[in-house]
Structure formats: structure tokens, C-alpha cells
Amino acid sequence: MARAEKFECPSFPWPGGKDSLAGHILEHVPPKGCTFFDLCAGRGNITWHAIHSGLEYEQWVVNDILTGPFFRAIRDFGNKFQATEKTLDEYKRCAELAKDGDPYALLMEPHLCFNGGTFGANGMRGDGGGRRTAESHTKNVHLACQYLREKKVRITNLDWRDCLEAERSGPNDIVVIDWPYLDCNVGAYSPESICPTEGIEYLQKASFPWVFCEYYQPLFVAAFGAPVFKQVVQLRSCDVNKVREARTECIWTNIGKTRPTVTVTLHEPVPEDRTQIYYTHLSESELLEEIKKCIGSVNFSRNQMQREMRERLLPALLELKKRTYRKTPGFYETLAKIGLNADTVRQWFYRSNTADEVIDLFEEENQPSVKQRGGRDSVDTEALLLEHADRMAKAVLTDKFANAKKLATQYVEARKESRV
Questions:
Q1: Angle between helices 103-112 and 88-98 (to 10 degrees)
Q2: Quick one: 208 and 133 in the same domain?
Q3: Looking at the domain assignment, is residue 298 inside a domain?
Q4: Are 188 and 179 in contact (CB under 8 A)?
């Protein structure tokens, strides 16, 4: 691809986007290395700045559980994209097109939605989009397309931990982490999309260099020490005339630090004498000590729960579902023998991506009841197969490939039986 005309670094608005902070983040990133991982990329502003500033990495990866389709649309169609001006009618039209994964609609999304968010979570810009014009948005998309193609950037949309474990990051890589911030509800993500104590434990043990950004939180100061960068910023909101709240952006990194020894807190049962009256007799120092012990136990228990669900419960449930497929007793009946039901399991799962996987697992599926070919139920069978195919297509369009593969296998088996 020929070099485009000289233009400023591409950037796209996004709730919590790092366009203004990217320069400070990259000051703590080595100038060269093996792989540059933008772990929770949003609209990719850290990656655009990293490429624009000339960092020399052999490989580039952008990962985001929501915006993977946006990056693929830039890479595959961005050079031919032409934005239109913002109107309510165009917003409504693109919102419908985006449901089917239309690349033009995905590329228009940051141009039309408030703060560059999504059609599903953020409404149309009430101010008509500020100073950004269709022409400037088009240039941003064209240059971003050029960056993705020239650097052969790999695009993934995995949960943060699944991405790191799949990529097997090493000491010559760099991982930039921008999780959804605690105590914030920006629309695109829920602050509960990650379990912070799980993330802290993972980063404390990490053998790869990382740079992490968040608002100033005592939780992260206790885990990682003082931030290497702090800056007071104005919190953006839908009504800045009424809501003006200052927050402190911070950056932490393990680069140049000795890998800490992680203290594992053993779980102890709650003593039977712990009642409200018990605490009225404690001194302030004793209360603080009790709180400290409690925090350690809660963090240990929470992280242990994450491991149990991710590494034991979910794989076992998936295998059981496969073995009991189209058999009697079925999946639900088999679980009922040990007193387990779907609602109970759903409540256990905290992390949003794993929760989605479990909800898909526990959805009742309308399996085709296939009878003799050409019989009176043949029309019903075709309708059920079509409905199943629609669900399979939806899984593909929403990038739930594991679920799509499972649905495709079931579809093929049902088709074979319908021909018997």
C-alpha cells in the first residue's frame, strides 16, 4: 500500500480511550522488542500511537472482547471507506446494519455514537459530533488501515487472560493493559468485566513486562506500589455542564522492578465469636488488623474461585454436555442427580466472558425432533433446522466461535438424521 499523505496519528473516540494518555504510557515501553500486545485495545489508540511513534516490534497484536470486528473492518475495508455526515437517520440505519456485522456500519460507529461508544450502549452524539467531520473520520480510518496492513497486526477478541495464555508472552514482549476501570460505568463495558484481585495476582506473577493504567486506587497501590505517572483529568460525561468530576489517571509497570514474592494467604474459617458485639470491644489497631486478615482471606478465596470455575468447572460441564447430547437422561437431568441446576451455576460466574459462555451452555436448545423423511413432521424439521442455522450465524457474527462450532456440529448431525 502506498504511503498516505502526511496526517496526524489516527485516533478514535472511545469510553476510556487513551488518545491523550498514550504518549505517557509509551514513555514506559521499550523502544523495540518481539511482540507489542494491546491487551484491552478499545479503539486502538495506544497501538496507533505506538506505530506512529516508530516503535520497533517484530509482531503486533490488538485484542479486545468487544471491538475485534471493528479492527477487522478497518483492515479489510478501511482503504475504501468514505464516511458520511452525522444525522439521526444515518445513525438509525447504521445501528440496524451493525447488528449483522456490516463493515461500513462498524466503521461509522465511533463517528456516530456518543464518546465513540457502541450502538448498543451509547446513543447518538447530541452535539453532532463536535469538531470531527466526515472527512477527518475518513482520513483516520484510511491511515489506521494502512498501519494494520503494513505491520500485519494480528486481531483477536479474547478475554484478557485467555489472550495472554494463548500468546505465551515472554520477557522480550510488552503487554499494555487498560482494563475497564473500577467504580466506573462508561457504557461499553461493565466495571465487573474483570475480577481485579485475579488480575493483580496474575500480574504479580507475570514473567513478561507490562504497563498498566487505571485511576488512582488503593487496591493497586498496595499491590504494585506507587504509580510511575499520575495526572489529574476531567471525567467525561453526557452532561459536562452539570457533572464535573476530577479523577487521577495513573500508570504502573513492572519494568525495572524485581519480581515480588507473592504471599499466599491460607483460608481460615470465620471464627464463631465474630458478631457485632465482638467488634465493639476491639481497639482501632485491632480493628485494622482484623480488616487486613479479612481482605487477605477474601482475595485468596475469590482468586481460588476463579481458578475452580475456569480450570475445572467449565471444562467439566462442556465435556458432560457433549457426552449427554441427544441422550436420555440428558444434560439437565444428569446434573439434577447431584442437586445442580442452571440458575445456581450462572450465579457463580463473575467474569463477563466466562458468564456468557456458561449462559450459552445452559440455554435450552430446540433440537430438531427428526422423523421419517417426507413424513408429516418434515416441515417442522426444516423450520427447526433453519432456526438452528440462524443461531449458528448469530454466534459467528458476534465472534462466539466456540459456540458457533458447537452449533455447526449439532446442525450437521441433525441434517444427517433428517436424511435417514
A1: 140
A2: yes
A3: no
A4: no
Say yes or no: 228 and 351 in one domain.
no
Q: Is 248 helix (H, G, I), strand (E, B) or coil?
A: strand
| Same domain, residue pair 247 and 331 | no
Cβ(53)–Cβ(25) below 8 Å: no
Q: Which three cell numbers stand for residue 1?
A: 500500500
**Structural domain count of the chain:** 2
Say if residue 325 is in the same domain as residue 246: no
Range of the domain at 142: 22-253
Return the closest-CA partner of residue 271 out of 282, 260, 263: 282
Phi/psi at 289 (nearest 5 deg)? -65, -40
Its pTM surpasses 0.90: no
Q: What b/e sequence results for 98-125 when a residue is b if at least 16 CB atoms lie within 10 Å of its CB, and e otherwise?
A: beebbbbbbbbbbbbbbbbbbbebbebb
Is 222 contained in some domain? yes
Q: Is 399 left (phi over 0), alpha (psi -120 to 50) or beta?
A: left
Strands 154-156 and 229-235: unpaired
Tell me how far apart the alpha carbons of residues 350 and 381 are, in angstroms, rounded to a whole number.
37
Task: Produce one character per residue of 260-298: b if its CB has 16 or more CB atoms within 10 Å, e if not.
Answer: eeeeeeeeeeeeeeeeeeeeeeeeeeeeeeeeeeeebbe
- Helix, strand, coil shares of the chain as percentages rounded to 5? 50, 10, 40
Last residue of a domain, one of 236, 253, 270: 253
Task: Give the end of a domain, one of 199, 234, 253.
Answer: 253
For 229-251, what is each residue's pLDDT tens digit? Answer: 998 876 654 444 444 567 889 99
Cα–Cα distance for residue pair 316/296, rounded to 1 Å:
29
Please write the tens of the pLDDT for every residue from 26-62.
999 999 999 999 999 999 999 999 999 999 999 999 9
